[in-house]
Amino acid sequence: MGEYDVVVAGLGPAGTVALWHLARRGFRVIGVDMRGPGTLWGKPCGDALGAHHVREAGLPPLPSAVVKNRVEAIDVYSPGEKVRYRVRGEGYIIDREAMGKWLLEDAVNHGAEVLLSTHIVAPLIEKGRVVGVRARGGGGPVELRGRLVVEATGFTRVLRSKLPGEWPIAEDISSEDTNIAYREVIVYEDYEVEEPSVIRIYIDQELAPGGYWWFFPESPTSVNAGVGVQASLGINPRERYQRLVKTHRLFSRRFHVAKAAGAPLPTRRPSNSMVGPGIVAIGDAAYTVNPLHGGGMGYAFRAAYIAARVFEEAYEAGDISVEALWRLNVEYMRAIGARQAALDVFRIFLQRLSNSDISYGMEKRLIPEQDIYYTSSEGDISVSVIEKLNIILRGLRRPSLLARLKTVAHYMKLVKKHYNAYPDTPAGLKSWVRRLEEIYAEYRSKLG
Known about the structure:
Low-confidence stretches: 389-395
Helix content: 25-40%
Distance between the termini: 55 Å
Structural class: alpha/beta
Number of domains: 3
Order of helices and strands: EHEEHEEHEEEEEEEEHEEEHHHHHHHH
CATH superfamily of the largest domain: FAD/NAD(P)-binding domain
CATH architecture of the largest domain: 3-Layer(bba) Sandwich
Shape: globular
Largest sheet: 8 strands, mixed
């Protein structure tokens, strides 16, 4: 048994960054993870990270050993690949294991304790509050107690799934708001990738319904490639990926597979509350992802950073109640969650489109190429696009598609406004959630 200021459950991107910030603030903190030293941050992922995410999470510049490739742009391809949008932006393809090790070692050097190869079993709940965790490692069962527990066990949500159902933080996720992905890291034997600084996303509702497939170069000869599909459809993404490998020109050269794995991931707005009595949730465990593509590393970093700052202030004030920790919710929802919720509205629209509709929209530049980054980062369809839609609505062959796009733009703004009015205290959460559910019900009804 151990007594700590904070127990961090899970040492993936969210948990490791939380541990790093807490250790550097001088807290007695311990991190627990089921993986061993050589498999840290082991979840299969595209491994892409925007450069701005590192800065916004209060992290130092990435060392060269962590960066596999520097990214300058993202290409988004229409079904059939007749249309390509190129979105400029600075980012990285990282070595996940190296980055996890780098941050973890620095946290330990600043006083953090770490238990690896140790499974989180359940939360310890006493008098209506989480006071620690039960875990099991090679030495048997162990109880770790802390003033705060950070739930960072990823999509498995080991702790959240065992919390009382009436706690808002225990909110579950539906399969419609989940994707299942399969990816391989392949190494070409006689080929170098064109433009290795450009990562590629391919939209194809027949191959990857409700998702997409990707091709992210790690180097001129090594690529992270995979397929993600909407979980509620019951489709095996590995089978779709194998179909892709047999038919697409990018896989026609000789290569060998260096890594292969699959995993589920959230693709929705953040959890309505990331805060509970004695516990906060961050990362995939709190659904803090970009709903359009499921990328979550950068947002996990940011949530961890906010959580560490909020805990520090609560600790210094001698009050670690739900009310004192609530600023994690307020700050995240208004700064980031509002945009993610708006993109969630757009995601629901995209998942209902056919390949024909998507190709048509991209060919006609209904959302112009220069506005794609604005929409994907800010959660808005710009005023110029709305004005353009008003002009061309009657003149094109698919007025129903354009009318729906106007509906989408309206509800993106509406839900973003609602998140910017996230309640300042827990007392306002119930009515806020009720109105949020009404907005989504109205939107789905009008979208058809």
